[in-house]
Automatic annotation (TrEMBL), chain A:
Pfam family, one: VWA_CoxE
Designated name of the protein: VWFA domain-containing protein
Superkingdom to which the source organism belongs: Bacteria
InterPro entries assigned: UCP010256, Uncharacterised_CoxE, vWFA_dom_sf
PANTHER family reported for this sequence: BLL5662 PROTEIN, BLL5662 PROTEIN-RELATED
Organism: Ferrithrix thermotolerans DSM 19514
TrEMBL record, chain B:
Organism (species): Ferrithrix thermotolerans DSM 19514
Name used for this protein in its record: MoxR-like ATPase
Record-annotated AAA+ ATPase domain positions: 37-226
SMART domains, sorted: AAA
InterPro entries reported for this sequence: AAA+_ATPase, ATPase_dyneun-rel_AAA, CbbQ/NirQ/NorQ/GpvN, P-loop_NTPase
GO MF term list: ATP binding; ATP hydrolysis activity
Length: 379, 313
């Protein structure tokens, strides 16, 4: 019979082959666990493996398959009940009005434009740009400086005009001055970054803007601590993918992760999935939530309104950025948009570089203003 | 091998059962290993599945103190580990001055040593968990306290990094006093509702277990234990309906805590069975969102009640 160490190392390598990452320390821990248990009891072995080698519930399916492969026995039935991380929402028809915007392919070279043309570019609609301009704009967006939205934190800082006494510092001062109290040090509440959550619509109608807006989201990762999701027919968290010093590579990783590029839109339902899995659980709580979407929703506007209300109830503020808003004579009449509008604190356009810069401004101030989430008085 | 009189996961299930904690084998295995290997145990799962209760059950089983650290946004060392008792320090300075007059340089150094000694140290949960005061010896075995770090996902990442250091070293360093450590690591249980992902480094350090909602049989057993005196029929109905509500995909699936509260409420109101009227009146105990209430009202109540009755037979 194999020793615990042999079993542990063997199973760890099976896991690695199935694409899970298993640190050596964890496989050693598993082998120690095995030596404490009855090796004949495969249920115990299974649970030991799970508690030492599995770090994400999302990996459970793969983990179970690897277990079956290595030990020849499927894990206990109760073990395979899995919570799904992402939920696909079915679309019955995919007929969407797609703007005739050019596909934003990766360019071979980027030429620096002269100042005057850059000025023109600042105000040009992303949807009307040719490939060269689009590449130039991606480069400019990278340079947008985010000043993160701030909130009061519990953690205190030394401050000569602070309201509270900093006793630790004061005692040190008193000792330095031969036990004599001369001045008392003060402190006040510090400032911390407020969470920023960006939800980017990647449905067909947003195609001319998606790539640019995701680059914008990418830029926000550095300045503000943002979480980025794409919504469309499903919800995908792409924060991890977007990190990295090679922006193009990061964009590519994100693009690979998103399975519903230029698909249909179930905005309300995707938003519901976001609320249930992340938002209301805590991610959106007290955060600035930015929705980048044209509000084109093929789902039920009731669902949209309900999910927006849920979101607005936990978020500090909700900012909706709609590239169509800049179109002369635009009225937010699409069913989804008009259902969502009562719950939105700021409604902005985001069709050109200039408007994105304004958005950054709004985000950085959204953190400190006092008004809470705006709740529809209409309901 | 034998740890605190328990020689394997199956025995641990029995021991916890005596504390009225009904554990499944998965949880028991993870917990047993955490105790045997002296590793922290990270429990993740929906709110109300009994993550916190595990720590309480272990503490009553061993008869050791339960030290609880509730995490929140912005928690820091002074609230989690230690702080100096400043008002007493000031008082001490004044008293000394009155007794001895103005201090010489040499005395000042001595004063500083006095002020930053254990006497003026305020111990917060993480430090208390290492304090020999909370360790007991039973049958020549050293029993550590249970340290519950609740809702770690609410704390900031920086705090998590700090926690990782304490958990892996089993020691705290206070600049004025030096390194404080304990002979055996406390039995440490961390819980997370997964509002954000806990850092991988911390997960690697811990044993990990995802706590599911209980199966029908387990739920039935738990409600019976926690709401004694409630009729068998009523408990079965509560468990059946609760399980069904979870399946509806409501915003906030009711946890076991809600099911227990519901059984108790029904019993307090003098109902022996659930009918449509009682159900509507007490629904607020089970589901906590208006939207959820609307969905739950569509349940086929009479067929559920029938199922529950059959299950009791």
């Amino acid at each position: 019979m194999a020793t615990p160490l042999e079993i542990a190392l063997g199973f760890a390598s099976t896991l690695r082959e199935s694409g899970l990452s298993v640190p050596v320390t964890s496989s050693v821990l598993f082998s120690k666990s095995l030596s404490l248990l009855d090796l004949g009891d495969l249920e115990e072995v299974y649970w030991a493996a799970r508690s030492t080698l599995l770090f994400k519930v999302a990996d459970l399916d793969r983990f179970n398959r690897a277990f079956e492969m290595y030990f020849g026995v499927a894990p206990h039935a109760s073990a395979s009940a899995v919570k799904k991380e992402s939920v696909t929402i079915l679309i019955e028809d995919d007929e969407e009005p797609t703007d005739g915007g050019e596909a934003l392919e990766e360019g071979e070279e980027v030429k620096t434009l002269r100042f005057s043309s850059r000025e023109v570019l600042r105000h040009k609609d992303f949807g009307e740009m040719d490939e060269k301009e689009a590449n130039e704009i991606l480069d400019l967006i990278r340079k947008i400086k985010f000043s993160p939205p701030m909130r009061r934190s519990l953690r205190e800082r030394r401050s000569p005009v602070g309201r509270r006494l900093d006793m630790r510092k004061s005692i040190a001062e008193i000792i330095r001055h031969d036990g004599e109290t001369i001045t008392m040090a003060r402190k006040s509440k510090g400032l911390r970054k407020r969470k920023l959550v960006i939800l980017c619509d990647v449905s067909g109608s947003m195609e001319p803007y998606s790539r640019v807006l995701i680059r914008f989201a990418q830029a926000s990762l550095w300045g503000a601590s943002a979480e980025v999701f794409t919504i469309g027919t499903r919800l995908t968290r792409i924060t991890k993918e977007l990190y990295g010093s090679d922006l193009e590579l990061a964009m590519q990783r994100a693009a690979d992760a998103v399975k519903d590029w230029s698909g249909g839109t179930r905005l309300g339902e995707s938003l519901g999935v976001f609320n249930s899995l992340y938002g209301v659980r805590g991610l959106a709580r007290g955060s600035i939530v930015v929705l980048l979407s044209d509000g084109w929703d093929r789902g039920d506007p009731e669902v949209m309104a309900k999910e927006m209300e849920r979101l607005a109830r936990v978020a500090h503020s909700v900012i909706w950025v709609n590239p169509l808003k800049a179109t002369p004579g635009y009225q937010p009449l699409t069913r989804g948009m008009s259902a969502a509008l009562p719950y939105v604190d700021e409604f902005l356009d985001g069709h050109c570089l200039d408007s994105l810069e304004k958005l950054v401004e709004v985000i950085s101030h959204a953190g400190d203003n006092r008004h809470g989430p705006k709740l529809a008085a209409t309901r | 091998m034998n740890y605190f009189g328990v020689s394997g996961p199956k025995e641990l299930v029995e021991v916890l059962d005596r504390q009225d904690y009904v554990a499944d084998e998965g949880l028991a295995t993870a917990l047993y290993l955490a105790i045997a290997l002296e590793r922290p145990l990270l429990l993740e799962g929906d709110a109300g599945v009994g993550k916190t209760e595990v720590a309480k059950a272990v503490s009553t089983w061993l008869g050791v103190p339960l030290i609880r650290l509730q995490c929140y946004e912005g928690i820091d060392v002074s609230q989690a580990v230690y702080e100096w008792d400043y008002s007493r320090q000031l008082l001490h300075i004044r008293t000394r001055e009155l007794v001895r007059g103005v201090e010489s340089d040499e005395n000042l150094e001595q004063l500083e040593d006095e002020l930053f000694s254990e006497r003026f140290l305020v111990r917060r949960p993480l430090l208390r968990a290492l304090d020999s005061e909370n360790y007991t010896v039973k049958d020549s075995e050293l029993l550590p306290p249970v340290l519950l770090i609740d809702e770690i996902d609410r704390a900031d990442d920086e705090f998590e990094a700090y926690l990782l250091e304490i958990l892996s070293e089993n020691a705290v360093t206070i600049p004025e006093l030096g390194r404080l450590t304990s002979e055996r690591a406390p039995i440490t249980i961390l819980t997370s509702n997964r509002t954000r992902d806990v850092h991988d480094a911390l997960k690697r350090r811990c044993l990990y277990h995802w706590v599911e909602h209980p199966s029908f049989d387990r739920e039935l057993e738990i409600i019976k234990r926690k709401a004694p005196g409630v009729s068998e029929v009523l408990v079965s109905q509560v468990a059946t309906i609760t399980q069904e509500v979870r399946r509806l995909g409501v915003y906030k699936p009711p946890g076991i805590a809600e099911a227990i509260d519901w059984a108790r409420s029904l019993s307090l109101l003098g109902s022996d069975e659930i009918d449509a009227e009682v159900f509507a009146k007490t629904l607020g105990v089970l589901v906590k969102y208006r939207e959820d209430e609307a969905r739950v009202k569509d349940l086929d109540l009479s067929s559920l009640i029938r199922t529950a009755l059959e299950r009791v037979k």
